[in-house]
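ENTRY TYPE: protein
CONTENTS: sequence, structure tokens:
***
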Amino acid sequence: MKLYFAPMTCSLSPHIVLRELGLHFELIRVNNKTKRTADGRDFRDINPKGYVAALVLDNGEVLTEGPAIVQYLADLVPGNALAPANGTWERSRLQELLNFITSEVHGGSAPLFNADIPEPTKEIFRQKLFKRLDYLNKKLVNKDYLLITFGLADAYLFTVLKWLPFFNIDVNDWPELGSFMTRVEARPSVQAAIAAEEATQPV
């Protein structure tokens, strides 16, 4: 398998999951501006949407969208602790969380990256994002992770919360989320993923 990624983007989530599961993969960097890849391709030929992550399977199939990729990966290793079995109530709860993170936290953060959006408009998005962070903070009271043990939703939430400093938002304003970030960042898989991405050469 090949994981096409860009540093400090949502592709960190499947990268962490690959390492948690001990799966063999090749890590290939993408330049988000030029769309060139480290293996000399136009990334849009791999994913016409033009954004990471993209997982290329050994049979040539390409899977995109982080929540789909991480669930596919977890299902390659039956019985792992990252995701409940397909068809169970617990799996539906995981999908509920993944959808919330992708639409309300990931999607809610996206406008804050846009330099063309006026600051008063960004403040509206910021206040909406704060409400979502309030919800997650309450959800983590007396819990280390979103679904008891570390799983797919935690890897994804960690990834998108890593962006908060870009918006001058301090995650420690939400104490449970601050503690969550410290716990997740201490995991060997997370440290290895971040180090591997930092070690790649710019494209």
In short: The chain has a mean pLDDT of 97. The longest strand covers residues 2-5.
